[in-house]
Amino acid sequence: MKSKLHNTNIIKEEAKRLGFLSCGISKAQFLEEEAPRLEKWLKKNMHGEMGYMENHFDKRLDPSKLVEGSKSVISLLLNYFPNESQREDSYKISKYAYGTDYHFVIKEKLKELLFFIQNEIGEVNGRAFVDSAPVLDKVWAAKSGLGWIGKHSNLLSKQVGSFFFIAELIVDIELEHDSPVTDHCGTCTACIDACPTQAIVQPHVVDGSKCISYLTIELKNEIPSSFSNQMDDWMFGCDVCQDVCPWNRFSKSHNEPLFNPYPGLLSKSKKEWEEITEEIFNQIFKKSAVKRTKFSGLKRNISFLKD
């Protein structure tokens, strides 16, 4: 029987080999502190039309409801910071959506990691999660020492900033747990001050229904006119709170070829986006997260910005 420490070490080594930025482990247990916070946030309707946020309340807080007999949550970060950005005079796309949809990229890596664990350690029951299931990924990542939750409610790391995806494996084996790190936001309010729609209503609390990412992706109806001239030319997602964060001066370019932008994506002008056809949309965003908003959604966003 191999030791907990040995198993923990080989998992972290394999995560590194698979290209993850970092890997941290926390004890799979009920998230007592999060329960009242989540309930309050939902009661204030800060999730807007994201009805799915109300579902599976118990699963969001208790990993054993997702993986029977779960003992450990393995949290992983994958860098997506690009080495070049869109031209200045363009409608903007969040950096995470420049290349192939991260769900596909990360799911493959997680499957490999789980397969490795089962091969090396023996019978291990586990499940992989990439923000498409009721898992509070930022909370688990913070518990496992991968960073702290910043005032903009994103996970932040002193070493690499915040331009990364978070994913988890919940497994039914005991591993060595990491300790949380301290908060290093201090008195800085750069993200709160810069948010174009004042969606960060207080430190660590984002009113999702005001967030540009929500308005351009999750919202299926028309964007309320009260947001006109506040959208800062974002047609899919928004990076403002991350762009202004001092810790992101430490961001380094990713080395995942699948996250490289589709040719021509970065050089398109506003006029070219305004004239985009469904055919071109399907070509450019064939395997992209931008497909979530659909062609009609992107056209709606562009015409809202143009008016």
From TrEMBL:
[4Fe-4S] cluster 1 binds at residues 185, 188, 191, 245. It comes from Halomarinibacterium sedimenti. Its cofactor is cob(II)alamin; [4Fe-4S] cluster. Pathway: tRNA modification; tRNA-queuosine biosynthesis. One of its GO terms (biological process) is tRNA queuosine(34) biosynthetic process. One of its GO terms (molecular function) is epoxyqueuosine reductase activity. Cob(II)alamin binds at residues 60, 131, 155, 166, 213, 238-239. The lineage of its organism: Bacteria, Pseudomonadati, Bacteroidota, Flavobacteriia, Flavobacteriales. Its EC number is 1.17.99.6. Pfam families: Fer4_16 (PF13484), QueG_DUF1730 (PF08331). Residues 173-205 form the 4Fe-4S ferredoxin-type domain. HAMAP family: QueG. Belongs to the QueG family. NCBIfam families: tRNA epoxyqueuosine(34) reductase QueG. Monomer. Binds 2 [4Fe-4S] clusters per monomer. It catalyses: epoxyqueuosine(34) in tRNA + AH2 = queuosine(34) in tRNA + A + H2O. [4Fe-4S] cluster 2 binds at residues 195, 211, 238, 241. Keywords: 4Fe-4S, Cobalamin, Cobalt, Cytoplasm, Iron, Iron-sulfur, Metal-binding, Oxidoreductase, Queuosine biosynthesis, tRNA processing. This is Epoxyqueuosine reductase. Its main location: cytoplasm. Signal peptide: none annotated. It is found in: Cytoplasm.
